[in-house]
Design a protein that fits this description.
The chain is mainly α. It is built from 74 helices and no strands.
Length: about 1500
């Protein structure tokens, strides 16, 4: 016995696979206990048993199998891994369990099957059960059928798909085994319970006796209400939550109790068939035959194919539809016409929704053909129209329907109206918008008044059916002009009409009484509980954890609190407020309650003065009404417009006040489209009024702002074109033009373009001019895409439109000034409207081409066209492409559905014929323009072809490819180009031309793309190719690859690209790293984080930097105190305890006005502090600057930013200083030396953006100094100019140009002789570019100021310049030669003495340069004259320099130093006066 129980010591999972059946039984029972105790469906314990479940259910021992099924049931119900086991377990259940001898085993197998359905593995379960129905063992077949029947009964047909099961019915019910037949019959009955008669075609082949039995069973089910008794796991909580509600609804909706089974479309049960491949090869040829019998044979073949195969597979049916349409419209034989119409109906039914591509082309032809009187043709046409309608909508076909209702033939009108009646019976009300309803009713009212009784009856039927569908409340207000007899006929049709679809029910909470009884909630919940239809033979464990049912409180759905009539939908931001339209009697009664009697009587008084007094009184009271009063705006507006004379007022003064009242109401109270529609036509008519036209325009603007611009513009233009007055039309266009500039482009362009086209075609020049002006305004927002709608106009008119285009294209749309608050996102109203508008104004012109009407060219992309494009003969291919070009050009704007065109076009992009490839590329460019942003979907197919063309050896193909790529990028974005590793694949095997062009394109486009718009993984795959091509043998590839580094670095970062270097060869690493370092400074500046816009303000530094051994710290501190005292007590530092708070809120000026600059000059001159001379800035210089700034009372926040390590704070400082410059020039002069010193530190930074911004600021600051005639002090010039000259050799053109510009300005505020000396020092630099630039500056100085500028003497200066002629750098040599050549024009041959001895080579070069210079530049005077002029001019220059020396001495004579005057008004006047005298002496 000990051996028998030894297995109990083993782990559970080992017992489950033990060879002893007792051990396995014990293991299965233990496993079931574990499964019950596990609360977490994702517990790792489940994974130990997931692989054992199949073995449990197929155990060879019957008892063990039963226990295994129990454990499996609990596992499937509670484990999150159960879904993974469904395939293996269901296979085992079908093979070993479902037909087992033991009843309990079979029941457990069925329960496991149903549990798999409950955990949403129903598709796999049905698949295994259907496989089991094909088993050789009839017991297994019968059991599988029974399980499928039970699953369908419990879960319903929406979970258990009947399509795979229903196909087996014929086989099952004709099986030789009676049990299989009986189960098959039960399955058929169950299917009928759920789907009804839709299944009958599937069992039509059964014997009549079987069919009769089934029909009897079906009759018993009629009227039975079916609903699932068990739900999927994901549905159970939802069903529990709505169970109480369902019980209450049953109490109030007894009529629903008789609802039968849910009807489904029989087509859903069929498999689609491709009939195009089954059609005879000569079908189209026969259809073109002259002999009608041959054409009939062809149509008979097609009809048989369509009848035998009701459901069609998707394909290219454009050619077939076109051929049938041709027979219908052109063929004279009515028999063939009827057959073709029948074929089209079958085709529409077979394709269902997929026929929508062809419906637009077919419907007008079929409606037109209703003129045929043959009954067989008319019947076929009706069936065809009804078959096509499910694939389209009335809105899509509205134009051809309205046109057919206006047809001259009564039969066409009558049949069109009848079609509308039938269509209304099968249309959901939500698909019919108000505009469409109004359009259809207007057209039907016209046909209702026709003389033909058939047309009248058909129209009445259509209107009655529409009234039934949309409710009398919606339609009746639009039938006010119909006479009573005809209205009675419409109501009679309304009573007879039968809506054949189940309308979407409104929310029932609103209709339920507040005191609805709480009927049987517990019972309903118990019914909806999963798996509780009938008692289970096995006690099933509860699911893990108790689910909480969340019940909404009774009032949570919202309650109507006071009958407010105005409602607005805020969720979309686009829905207009609406309200109920009051009857005239109701308006009259409410006006009597709201307004005084004298005002109401005055409004209708015959004396205009009394009317004027009444409306003025009313205008004064407008602001006093309660805004929340229901319908207040409608009452006031309709009182003004509805009481005679209303807005037809003849006195202009009274009319003006009435219009002012309406405008005030629109501005003060909620306004809806119902109220606007009451008066907009009359107000539009007043636009032509000479005295009140402007007031009427203001009223329309106010109404547009209160409701929606789109709505008001539509009503204004539609009414204007109904008028014969050209004045009304032109003023309407002028108002729309002004409204667009004020509101922004908030109008749907489709309707607006139609009205504008009518306007530009007007014969009246005023109307035409106003319309053309409106076109120009639209062009600002829509761009060049708008012009394509006027391509068909006459040349003279087109030239006028084009000239208006040329004026407006490229012009920035004005910032919207109206409707801003309404257009802001988010309902909180906390956004800043100004900022929003600025953002909107800064955007590019709005791309509204996506909203413009587009044409579907898919039907025109026929199979024949595709065959032509792929023909072996290049001429045929070219013809096909030419046809395609014409199709796209005619369509202008197309829909993205273009069938099989993209793959065919992709083949032509790689065509061996270069001209064909070029044409294909131009077509692709056409497609991008015509398709708009939707073209991005074609990139994956076409871009490899573009890249192939980009590497073509012919330049015109490469240019076409580049244009094509850019067009796709501009229209659809560039993201798709970098997906799927298309670019790396092209770089891997591409030609040098492709690599060069592609890297050039990447270098151009990638930097401008938003950083996170391109996948980093995709860009990383390009990096190895980039590094390989940086070292490529081809010079163009190398150059363009180097230029592409920056764009990729912007998206990947410098560090990422450096890490990618590890995989490169050591030989190439150096070159690649140098290229990366070169590109790094050009990386764009990342903005500072929002929370860190201000650098932290450190405590004041205690360290004092001394120079020359003198104790200068005390002097600095002393002067700091004196300076602060001079400024005032308000600038004294706060105590240490409160310093932090004060620093955080430093609101003092950026730079303070004081006289401390004199003391700083003295300290530097007497060596008390460090002189500002260095080759690399050290920490002591930064500390010195910090001390001097602190003493000068520079704003602490500004100083913290200035001395921060992050260059982004430096950029912020420059921005602040630039903004402060115009208002605070005195403070700048007082602190100029500090600002210049700080900027010299920035010259040694590596960030180019800071350097360029610094130079821009310097240019503005020096320009201000020039305007103030300020002269730089010695310490200001000496601490700035030498450092500035270091950057004159910068590799970037922008920096060099900026330095040159600043240097030219320095010459006007600082002695040029000293500048000359500093420039001469620059010749000692090791940087060849700096030496070149310095020589160019010397050339400029000599040309402007003569030879006497040379320091320390002419001979010393020119000898140093002449030494540069022998420099090894060519640019330095040329600059030195140019400088001496310039001096030669001033001094003549004397220059040879000044330059001293030169070697023969340098001398010959100089002679050659002078000789060439003489030819290009004639000397201003002879050398002798120049010498005398120079001699006579020397004393002046010397005197000028002496005067500077004297002035400096005079300034410093007061206290032994170069002290500047205090910065008061007199001091500034003295500076300005001295500078003026110097300029006069210079002249």
């Amino acid at each position: 016995m000990s051996e028998d129980t030894e297995y109990k010591k083993l782990p559970v999972e080992e017992r489950c696979v033990h060879k002893l059946w007792k051990a396995r039984v014990d293991g299965y029972e233990e496993a079931a206990k574990i499964f019950r105790d596990l609360d977490d469906e994702k517990s790792p314990e489940w994974s130990k048993f997931a692989g054992l479940i199949k073995k449990m259910i197929v155990d060879s021992n019957a008892l063990a199998q039963e226990k295994g099924l129990e454990a499996a049931l609990i596992f499937v119900e509670n484990s999150g891994l159960a879904g993974r086991t469904v395939g293996d377990v269901m296979t085992g259940i079908v093979q070993k369990c479902i037909a087992a001898p033991k009843t309990k085993t079979k029941e457990l197998a069925v329960q496991v099957t149903l549990m798999y359905v409950e955990i949403e593995k129903h598709e796999a379960v049905v698949e295994e059960l259907v496989k089991g129905m094909e088993h050789k063992n009839p017991k297994i077949v019968a059991a599988c059928v029974a399980a499928a029947t039970l699953a369908l009964h419990e879960f319903g047909h929406k979970v258990i798909g009947v399509k795979p099961v229903i196909k087996k019915l014929a086989t099952l019910m004709s099986d030789r085994d009676k049990s299989v037949r009986d189960e098959g019959k039960l399955l058929a009955v169950e299917i009928f319970r759920w789907i009804g008669a839709a299944m009958k075609p599937q069992i039509a082949t059964l014997p009549q006796v079987t069919l009769k039995e089934l029909e009897d069973e079906f009759d018993k089910l009629k009227g039975e209400r079916v609903e699932p008794s068990r739900y999927l796991k994901s549905q159970q909580e939802k069903q529990a939550m709505i169970a109480e509600t369902a019980a209450v609804e049953d109490a109030f909706n007894d009529e629903d109790d008789g609802a039968g089974m849910e009807e489904i479309d029989p087509m859903d049960l069929l498999d689609p068939v491709d009939i195009l491949s089954k059609m005879p090869k000569d079908f189209y040829d026969k259809l073109e035959e002259k002999k009608w019998t041959l054409r009939k044979e062809s149509l008979e073949v097609l009809e048989k194919l369509l009848t035998d195969n009701p459901k069609l597979e998707a394909g290219e049916y454009g050619t077939l539809v076109s051929s049938l349409k041709k027979v219908i419209t052109k063929d004279s034989n009515v028999v063939l016409v009827a057959m073709a119409v029948k074929c089209m109906a079958l085709l529409a039914k077979g394709l269902a929704k997929r026929f929508s591509n062809y419906s637009t082309a077919c419907v007008p032809a079929l409606l037109e053909k209703f003129k045929e009187k043959k009954p067989n043709v008319v019947t076929a046409l009706r069936e065809a129209m009804d078959a096509i309608y499910p694939s389209t909508t009335l809105e899509a076909q509205q134009e051809c329907i309205v046109e057919a209702l206006a047809n001259k033939n009564p039969s066409v009108k009558s049949e069109t109206a009848l079609f509308l009646a039938r269509a209304f019976c099968r249309t959901q009300p939500t698909l019919l918008n108000k505009k469409l309803i109004k359009l259809l009713i207007t057209s039907l009212i016209k046909t209702l008044n026709e003389s033909d009784p058939t047309v009248r009856d058909s129209s009445a039927e259509a209107l009655g059916t529409l009234m039934k569908l949309m409710s009398e409340k919606t339609v009746a207000p639009l039938l006010t002009e119909v006479d009573p007899l005809k209205l009675a006929k419409i109501k009679e049709c309304h009573d007879k009409a039968e809506i054949k679809i189940k309308l979407a029910a409104p929310k029932k909470e609103a209709a339920r009484p507040a005191s609805a009884p709480n009927a049987k909630p517990t019972t309903v919940v118990s019914k909806s509980k999963a798996g509780s239809v009938e008692p289970k033979p096995v006690a099933r464990p509860a699911t893990t954890g108790a689910r909480k049912v969340i019940k909404k409180p009774a009032g949570a759905a919202g309650s109507s609190g006071g009958g407010a009539t105005v409602t607005a939908t805020k969720s979309t931001g686009k829905a207009m407020p609406t309200e109920r339209e009051m009857s005239p009697e109701e308006v009259l009664a409410k006006a009597d309650e709201l307004l005084p009697g004298d005002i109401l009587s005055g409004l209708v008084d015959s004396n205009w003065k009394n009317r004027l007094f009444a409306v003025e009184q009313l205008l004064g009271q407008i602001a006093t009404f309660e805004a929340k009063q229901p319908g207040i705006s409608q009452i006031l507006v309709r009182t003004i417009s509805g009481r005679k004379p209303g807005l037809k007022e003849m006195n202009f003064q009274v009319l003006k006040v009435k219009l002012d009242i309406i405008r005030s109401v629109a501005e003060a109270y909620p306004l809806t489209s119902i109220t606007v529609d009451q008066v907009v036509n009359e107000i539009t008519e007043k636009l032509a009024d000479a005295k009140n036209g402007a007031v009427a325009a203001d009223v329309l603007t106010a109404m547009a702002e209160a409701t929606k611009l789109d709505h008001v513009v539509g009503r204004v233009l539609s009414f204007a074109f109904e008028q014969k007055s050209p004045k009304v039309q032109s003023e309407a266009f002028n108002w729309v033009n002004k409204a667009i500039t004020e509101f922004g482009f908030q109008i749907q362009p489709k309707i607006l373009i139609e009205d504008v086209r009518k306007g530009v075609q007007s014969t009246n020049p005023t109307v035409r001019g106003a319309a053309i002006s409106l076109v120009g305004t639209m062009a600002m927002y829509m761009g060049n895409a708008l012009m394509m709608f006027f391509d068909g106009e006459k040349p003279a008119l087109k030239s006028q439109i084009q000239s208006e285009f040329d004026k407006k294209i490229g012009e920035k749309p004005p910032r919207p000034v109206r409707g801003v608050q309404r257009s802001l996102g988010g309902g909180d109203g906390q956004g800043d409207p100004d900022n929003e508008c600025d953002d909107a104004a800064d955007d590019e012109p709005i791309n509204l081409t996506d909203l413009l009407p587009r044409i579907d060219i898919a039907p025109q992309i026929t199979e024949n066209l595709l065959k032509e494009m792929s023909d072996k003969d290049w001429k045929v291919r070219n013809e096909g492409l030419t046809k395609l070009q014409i199709i796209i050009a005619d369509a202008k704007l197309i829909k993205p559905s273009i069938g099989e065109l993209p793959p065919a076009l992709a083949q032509r992009l790689v065509d061996s014929n270069a001209k064909i490839a070029q044409t294909a590329l131009s077509i692709c460019e056409q497609l991008a323009t015509a398709m708009g942003s939707s073209c991005r979907g074609l990139v994956r197919i076409l871009f490899p072809g573009f890249l192939h063309a980009l590497g073509d050896n012919k330049s015109f193909v490469r240019a076409a490819a580049l244009n094509c790529i850019n067009s796709f990028g501009e229209k659809g974005g560039y993201k798709e180009f970098f997906e799927n590793e298309m670019i790396p694949d092209a770089l891997k095997s591409g030609s040098p031309a492709l690599k060069s062009e592609l890297w050039a394109w990447v270098a151009e486009k990638l930097p401008g793309l938003p950083p996170k718009s391109i996948s980093k993984e995709e860009l990383s795959s390009m990096v190895p190719h980039l590094y390989a091509h940086i070292c490529d043998r081809n010079a163009d590839v190398r150059r363009n690859a180097n230029e592409a580094i920056l764009g990729i670095m912007i998206h990947l970062s410098f560090e990422t690209m450096v890490r990618a270097l590890d995989k490169q060869k050591p030989a190439s690493k150096k070159d690649i790293m140098a290229a990366l370092e070169k590109a790094r400074p050009n990386l764009p500046v990342k903005p500072l984080p929002k929370g860190k816009l201000q650098a932290p303000i450190p405590d004041e530094a205690k360290k004092t930097v001394r120079g020359g051994g003198a104790a200068g710290g005390g002097a600095v501190a002393q002067k700091a105190g004196a300076g602060k005292a001079a400024v005032g007590d308000s600038n004294k530092p706060a105590p240490a305890s409160s310093r932090k708070k004060d620093e955080d809120l430093d609101l003092s000026p950026l730079l303070a006005v004081n006289s401390l600059k004199n003391q700083r000059l003295i300290d530097e001159q007497k060596m008390r502090v460090l002189k500002w001379q260095f080759t690399t800035p050290r920490e002591e210089f930064t500390e010195l600057l910090r001390e001097q700034m602190t003493a000068a009372n520079v704003n602490k926040a500004l100083m913290a930013n200035m001395l921060h390590d992050d260059f982004r704070y430096h950029l912020k400082v420059i921005e602040q200083l630039t903004e402060d410059l115009p208002q605070n020039s005195k403070a700048l002069i007082c602190n100029l030396d500090l600002i210049l010193k700080w900027l010299t530190l920035r010259f040694y930074d590596t960030n180019p953006s800071v350097l360029i911004k610094s130079l821009d600021y310097l240019a503005q600051a020096f320009q201000m100094l020039i305007d103030l005639e300020y002269i730089l002090a010695e310490n200001e010039g000496s601490s700035f100019v030498p450092h500035l000259l270091l950057k004159i050799g910068d590799p970037k053109d922008a920096v060099r140009n900026g330095v040159r510009r600043v240097l030219r300005q320095v010459l006007l505020v600082y002695p040029f002789t000293k500048v000359f000396s500093y420039v001469m020092e620059g010749l000692k630099s090791k940087n060849a570019r700096q030496r070149t630039e310095c020589l160019d500056e010397l050339t400029y100085l000599i040309e402007e100021y003569g030879l006497s500028i040379c320091q320390p003497s002419q001979q010393v200066a020119f000898k140093e310049i002449a030494r540069q002629i022998s420099d090894r750098d060519n640019s330095v040599r040329n600059a030195a030669l140019n400088c001496i050549a310039q001096a030669y024009f001033l001094a003549g041959d004397k220059i040879y003495k000044l330059i001293g001895q030169l070697n023969e080579k340098d001398l010959s070069m100089l002679d050659e340069r002078i000789k060439r210079a003489k030819k290009t530049k004639k000397p201003a005077a002879a050398p002798a004259e120049m010498a005398s002029k120079t001699t006579s001019g020397a004393p002046q220059v010397a005197a000028r320099q002496d005067s500077i020396e004297i002035e400096d001495g005079e300034v410093g004579g007061n206290n032994g130093c170069d002290e500047l005057p205090p910065p008061n008004e007199e001091g500034f006047k003295k500076v300005a006066k001295r500078s003026k005298c110097r300029k006069q002496r210079n002249l």
